[in-house]
Amino acid sequence: MLKIEALTKIYGQVAAVDNVTFDVPAGQMVGIIGRSGAGKSTLLRMINRLTDPTSGRILCDDVLPETIDVSGLRGRRLREWRGRCAMVFQQFNLVPRLPVLTNVLIGRIGYRATLPSLLGLFSDADRALTLRALERLDMVTHALHRADALSGGQQQRIAIARALVQEPRILLADEPIASLDLRNATIVMDALRRINKEDGITVISNLHLLQTARDYCDRIIGMRKGTIVFDGKPSELTDSLAREIYAIGAGGDEEVAMAFSATSAAATH
Amino acid sequence: MSVSQAAAQFERQYAEYRRSKTVWTVLFWALFVVCFVVSLVVTRFDVVALVVGLPRTTDFIVKMIPPIGWSTFGADVDEWYWGIGKWLNSLLNTLLMAYLATVLGTTIGGALSFLAARNLVKSYAVYWITRRVLEIARTVPDIVWALLFVLAFGIGPLAGVLAITVHTLGAQGKLFAEVNENVSPLPIEGIRSAGGNWLHEMRYGVLPQALPNYMSYTFWRIELNVRSATIVGFVGAGGIGHDLFTSIQLLYFADAGAILLIVVATIMAIDMLSERFRHRLIGKEQLSQ
Questions:
Q1: What single-letter DSSP state applies at residue B66?
Q2: Stretch 84-113 of chain A: residues touching chain B, C-beta under 8 Å
Q3: What are the structural domain ranges in chain B?
Q4: Which member of A89, A98, A109 has the closest CB to residue B195?
Q5: What b/e sequence results for A43-76 when a residue is b if at least 16 CB atoms lie within 10 Å of its CB, and e otherwise?
Q6: Is the dihedral of CA A127, A89, A4, B195 positive or negative?
Q7: pLDDT at A267 over 80
Q8: Subunit contact A50:B204, Cβ cutoff 8 A
Q9: Residue A151 touches chain B, beta carbons under 8 Å
Q10: pTM of this prediction?
Q11: Domains plus CATH for chain A?
């Protein structure tokens, strides 16, 4: 169980995330929706601790037998947490000039002593794990290609493979398909759902398309101006509630039209 | 706001933009001209003296080349390059000094460049101190460092190597730091999110992105350092510079000419080699895209 308690992040005068509280039971697939600027990214980045919260707590008992307060972790404990709470990004965040294999092995650096991992010395077990992850994402044939030689969809699959070899309990995905075309978006969302089902890894994903969240997630959280305005099953999210999340009435702009577009990554599971 | 209102507002803003741009352009050129004139005056740059003095520079060059006849070409060149064995030995010494100093200076400067990049270190104090250390290493001329090290460690190549190393680490540290400041932050964030520490971020996030630029600067630096290694020989740091300085001091201009020619040829050869190497590197880079 991941427990978010009164989590707040203030930038200057603006609360990007304002007193947010919710629980995520282990193994759930959660989609977070809302307009850009609603605080979705900040929320996810606080959970991985790429961003430090201003106040509030992040409690987790999935990783260790005891409950830990993630918001207070520092140094080695913090890096361990990041390893167990993997993250994929809209822009993939791979190292462009390195081969795919090395990019995925980077997911193992948390498990190795610093010196060998700096020298690129990984164990056979690490390499086996890496190949298995690449196999699951159908990317083994690209193992020795440079990451920047791949398409966006392929790069995102490499990023997911890197997350997998971290052997995480939680996988955070910050707009994983926002830079992808429809076909690749489907492949990537299917992969996330499969990992969630087969490995029991909790997946929390920010999604710009409402339909994607409806198709793939067990639960949808709607955010607006830093606060949670909806939290429930996809079936409970009526059109009028969705309009409220996206604050329609302020003019039918492009972003909202996009979010509502029916041509989302289609559910194939 | 109606269309015409928006257009009117744009016109106003555009006029304002043009006005402020013109003011800055005029100011820039005025500053440029003032600086140019002041430098002419202060350095006593005199066109007349330049024209009168120019032929005299050829006098010196003529003195550096002994008479060489067609019929006695081989014997004359042989005579001119009487010390070729000694000079080549000194040249090898100079090249090795340059090579060792480039390796040492680039390694140390490269390591410091991460601490001198604003985007890579949290602590402003670390950044500030590293930048100042690099500045001192770089702005003190290598010949001054050489004098200092000759006094400390005695006459010989060690002083030269140390002098060039210090200058190189300052220069490479700054250039590399600037490269580091321009890398994309996304891979670094990816590594941090996977549980990597600062060293991992530098090794896997920054280094692969910056390496081609590092290589390019390093080839250039080898070339500069061969020249530097020659110069520091003047103050007793060994190598071919020492031979050159001695021959000038003793007014053996033909010897000085012979040695200079060797140095120029060597630097040309290095330039061509490094150019080739760099192009091959870049070519490989593009192929693997």
A1: -
A2: 84, 86-87, 89, 91-98, 102, 106-107, 109-110
A3: 3-55, 91-287
A4: A109
A5: bbbbbbbbbebeebebebebbeeeebebbebeee
A6: positive
A7: no
A8: no
A9: no
A10: 0.82
A11: 2-260 (3.40.50.300)
- Paired tokens of B148: 């200092």
Q: Can you spell out the DSSP letters for A142-211? A: GTTSBGGGS-HHHHHHHHHHHHHHT--SEEEEESTTTTS-HHHHHHHHHHHHHHHHHH--EEEEE-S-HH
Alpha-carbon span A199 to A166, nearest angstrom: 13
Tell me: the pLDDT tens digits for A49-82? 999 999 999 998 877 777 888 888 888 889 989 9
A164 touches chain B (CB under 8 A): no
Establish, for the pair of chains A and B, how many residue pairs have beta carbons separated by less than 8 Å. 85
For domain B91-287, give the CATH number: 1.10.3720.10
Cα A229 to chain centroid, rounded? 20
ipTM field = 0.88
- Cα B136-B142-B148 angle, rounded to 5 deg: 85
Q: Is A109 close to B200, i.e. CB distance below 8 A?
A: yes
Query: CA B205, CA B194: separation in Å to the nearest integer?
Result: 12
- What region does B223 belong to: left with phi over 0, alpha with psi -120 to 50, or beta? alpha
Query: How many Cβ atoms are within 10 Å of B215's Cβ, its own excluded?
Result: 16
- For B122-169, the pLDDT digits (tens) are 999 999 999 999 999 999 988 899 989 989 988 888 888 999 999 999
Radius of gyration for chain A, computed over Cα atoms and rounded to the nearest angstrom: 18
Residues B116 and B174 sit within 8 Å (Cβ to Cβ)? yes
| Chain centroid to CA A74 | 21
Note whether A97 contacts B208, CB cutoff 8 Å: yes
Chain B residues at the A interface, defined by Cβ less than 8 Å, are 184, 186-187, 189-197, 199-200, 203-205, 208-209, 211, 288-289
Q: Which has the closest alpha carbon to A104: A79, A82, A91, A86? A: A86
Which residue does chain A place closest to B200, by CA atoms? Answer: A118
CA separation (Å) from A49 to A37, A44, A79, A170, B189?
19, 8, 9, 13, 11
